[in-house]
Design goal:
Blueprint: H1 2-47, E1 48-49, E2 52-53, H2 56-75, H3 82-97, H4 102-119, H5 133-143, H6 145-148, H7 164-168, H8 172-177, H9 189-192, H10 197-210, H11 220-225, H12 234-237, H13 245-254, H14 267-283, H15 287-312, H16 314-332, H17 337-358, H18 363-396
Antiparallel strand pairs: 1-2
Helix pairs in contact: 1-2, 1-4, 2-3, 3-4, 5-10, 14-15, 14-17, 15-16, 15-17, 16-17
The protein binds heme C.
Heme C binds at residues 42, 140, 143-144, 146-148, 158-159, 166, 175, 178-179, 186-187, 191-192, 203, 207.
Length: 397
């Protein structure tokens, strides 16, 4: 009897580990496809200009990348939405064949990469804050400078890592991916085979910093205008080139200096970002990862402002407290995806309300109010004086 229980336990454990292996294998396939798509988005403009081939070898490479990305996606488990994804990938291949405009190809390739990420719950952002560029600067000099140059200048043969336009086409995650030996084949094992994930993120930041070296930081009001871009996952997954001009140059700078802008980040925006990472993890079946991100969101995003929220809006505060509890319970008890996602979205809305509640009333509104009041007073005074004069004139007549 005891033996059969042990057997059953062993069987369950091996099924679980097989399943985990399969998930990891799928993550690699999806990341590889995303890497190829990013090379198409970035490099196609160097191969084709206004419908003309300017680099035959590179053009062929882009077509091979598109075909390989489609093969990889076909190896991923089938699910609703995959055939639509395959269709748009076939559309990309057709666009390449007819030498479509570079900007359109870039958009297509990036859009496909984003859809792939959403469909297969790709983790494209770290949960912990990004390391500073200086952390990996020595590593860059040791491992990378021999080919890419001390400042990323490329020395002719390689792309210039300081080229802001080219770099704007990569998200930080795309850069991170070029250093993953399971994903990218440009670099040999000797270059990146032993790097851990934290080192790769640090190198991605180091590389991102080259394009904005010696540039002044963007003004602080941009951080208020685009809070999601100074938070994760926004900072890691957004390609600056797809943004309006002011946000584009701001993001280029911010992602090269994550340690300098941490103080600009609203803790509740951090909580919202981590919740969205928790959602991706939960959807992908990684419940432990989801729980970790949920706790980080609570500790690093909500906790620092918990008291202020309580003081400014008690009702909202008790709703928030209850919602954190519910979500925690649901994740711990492996509740169905739909319940957890609904709870995460609910919590996100409450956090958004808390953020609006805590924001100070902009000075502009107050002065408008005063101006309006003073104007009304002056008007009333003027009218009464005029009326008084008229009345006196009449009475004298
Ligand atoms: C042995 C030479 C060599 C070394 C060392 C090397 N790289 Fe590269 N790297 C390349 C080549 C070749 C490419 C592909 C260039 C292309 O696509 O035309 C590349 C591409 C890249 C790209 C994509 C750039 C783009 O614009 O397409 C990044 C980012 C990058 N490397 C970062 C690094 C980092 C970080 C290191 C150090 C850990 C490193 N590389 C080490 C040769 C090297």
């Amino acid at each position: 009897m005891r033996n059969s229980w042990t057997l059953l336990l062993l069987l369950a454990l091996s099924v679980q580990s097989l399943w985990a292996q399969q998930v990891a294998e799928n993550d690699k396939l999806a990341a590889r496809a995303s890497n190829l798509l990013s090379y198409i988005a970035v490099g196609y403009g160097d191969a084709i200009d206004k419908g003309q081939i300017i680099d035959t070898g590179l053009y062929q490479l882009q077509q091979d990348h598109a075909a390989e990305a489609l093969d990889l996606v076909r190896k991923l488990p089938d699910k609703p939405g995959r055939s639509a994804l395959e269709n748009s990938m076939a559309g990309l291949q057709a666009a390449l064949s007819r030498r479509e405009d570079a900007e359109k190809v870039r958009r297509r390739a990036n859009e496909i990469a984003d859809r792939l990420a959403a469909l297969y719950q790709m983790q494209r952002s770290p949960a912990h804050s990004l390391p500073s560029a200086s952390l990996a600067a020595p590593l860059f000099q040791q491992r990378c400078a021999s080919c890419h140059g001390r400042w990323g200048q490329g020395d002719g043969a390689l792309p210039d890592l300081r080229d802001a336009r080219r770099m704007a086409s990569f998200s930080l995650y795309d850069l991170y991916n070029t250093l993953d030996p399971n994903v990218d084949s440009v670099h040999s094992e000797r270059v990146d085979g032993d790097l851990n994930s934290r080192q790769r993120w640090a190198l991605a930041v180091t590389v991102a910093a080259f394009a904005v070296k010696n540039q002044l930081p963007p003004s602080a009001d941009l951080a208020e205008r685009y809070p999601a871009l100074i938070s994760l996952p926004g900072m890691a997954v957004t390609r600056p080139i797809e943004l309006p001009t002011d946000a584009r140059s701001a993001l280029l700078w911010w992602r090269g200096h994550p340690h300098l802008i941490r103080s600009l980040e609203h803790p509740l925006t951090r909580a919202e970002g981590l919740l969205s990472l928790a959602e991706t993890a939960y959807r992908g079946g990684d419940n432990a990862g989801a729980y970790h991100k949920l706790m980080l969101a609570y500790r690093e995003g909500y906790k620092p402002l918990q008291q202020s929220i309580e003081m400014s809006d008690r009702v909202l505060y008790s709703k928030l407290q209850a919602q954190w509890q519910t979500l925690r319970r649901e994740v711990l008890s492996n509740a169905p995806n739909t319940d957890v996602i609904a709870s995460i979205q609910n919590l996100g809305t409450l956090l958004g309300r808390a953020r609006a509640r805590l924001e100070p009333m902009p000075g502009g509104h107050i002065s408008y109010l005063w101006a309006a009041l003073l104007f009304a007073l002056a008007l009333a005074l003027g009218v009464s004086l005029w009326w008084g004069l008229r009345w006196r004139k009449r009475s004298r007549l």
